[in-house]
Amino acid sequence: MTLTRTSPADGEAPPQALSIGLLLVILIVAFEAMAVSTVLPRVANQLQGLSWYGWASSAFLLASLFGAVVSGLLSDRRGLALGAGISLGVFAAGLLVSGLAPDMPAFVLGRFIQGLGAGGLGALPFAVITARYPEARRARMLAAVSSAWLLPALVGPLLASLMADHWSWRTVFWGLIPVLALAGPLCVLPLRAPASAPQSSAEEPATASHPRTLWPALALTISAGALIEGLRRADLPGAVMIGAGLAGTLLSARPLFPRGMGRLARGLPSALVLRGFAAFAVLGANAFLPLALHELRGLSLTQAGVLLSVGGVAWTVGSWVTDQLERRSGPESRPVRIRAGLVLISLGLGVTALSAMGVWPLWSAYLGWCVTALSMGVAYNANSLLALSSVPAGGAGRLSGQLANIEVLMVALAAGASGALLARVPSLPTAFALAFGLMLLGSMVPWVAATRLRQV
């Protein structure tokens, strides 16, 4: 999402209701993200749809990629209030469809609708903060937005599992709709009032770029979806879908990302590859880890949810560690931090996988996942800072979109590939072993990309 054509006057504070509504929206999106991974094993079991397990995550992610572009286009042409209102309404409709789903395909449809809304809501805070908050208050509001993810990380998985155990997994989705009804007016109504000063002309090119990215984003969503569905099928149409989906994904991605990613060109292309495959490995494993612990180690949803909470808190701590190291060691230490973090990510994933498969004690899964998430927070943020430093100030908005898109695309492919293994491999332990192996291989690709981060 880019900026609207207005921005606040220096020192003018936005309505307090806008800040409250914005943080409530972040809390809702973050809780949904943390809760779904926890209750998804229960959903797949009750709806008898294990073969659709990967699609429950992939559909949401691919839809969010396209939804962010559409919402940004609406916001630029008709104002932030309309973009925010439509995103909230679509997200609420998706929650309702998922909560009422009679079978797994209907649940996946609901997740797709949720993704369309969540794509716009995920980009909303940065657009609103830039357009409606004075310079002096932006850093504080950005910190508040980041902190809003910590509470859902702590209590989201546990609360979702308790709701599923005592009532139904459906209440996890229905329960968010009343909160949305509260957050919606607080967030949308203040955005209807015009801001006080015109936006600088330097920001106009970002607005003009949206129509050129709309159709490539749609093509990428469709092509990646065809590739994922092809992997899930074991017939001739599936093979055709794999070929067409792979070709379409590569072609439609070209207008959205810089050249040279395929050959790991130095600088920004390698930084994007690093981010994409790190997300592929860690967030891809996160998509099926609760199911693996439930099926292979007999953990309850609550126990599996605790593991996700540990990971969420560890990632946040890793982000704080990066901030402290950045202040003490400066930008020159970023490549070293990135490489160390990547090695520890692979190590932590290996420990978690061996524990989930029953080779090592169960407690080591918590240790391994904590190491993985903490290291991800360190390497991920250091890589983002390095990438941002490689572009001029006028290109920061476009780079933010590229960083978000490569992450969403790669996590969707990871969830789809692991879901395909669960659908096609008869032995569940073997399917999980292959899925963990795929994530581990993915975690090693950034090792190579990390050697190409310095620009020539």
Architecture overview:
The chain contains 17 helices and 2 strands. With 456 residues, it is mainly α. The protein has 3 domains: 1-204, Growth Hormone, Chain: A (Up-down Bundle); 209-256, no CATH class; 261-456, MFS general substrate transporter like domains (Growth Hormone, Chain: A), CATH 1.20.1250.20. Strands 1-2 form a two-stranded antiparallel sheet. The longest helix is centred in the first third of the chain and has 31 residues, at 16-46. The protein is globular. The two termini are 31 Å apart. Mean pLDDT is 83; it is low at 1-7 and 197-209. Keywords: Membrane, Plasmid, Transmembrane, Transmembrane helix. One of its GO terms (cellular component) is plasma membrane. The chain crosses the membrane at residues 20-40, 52-74, 81-101, 107-129, 141-160, 172-193, 269-289, 301-321, 342-360, 366-391, 403-425, 431-450. One of its GO terms (molecular function) is transmembrane transporter activity.
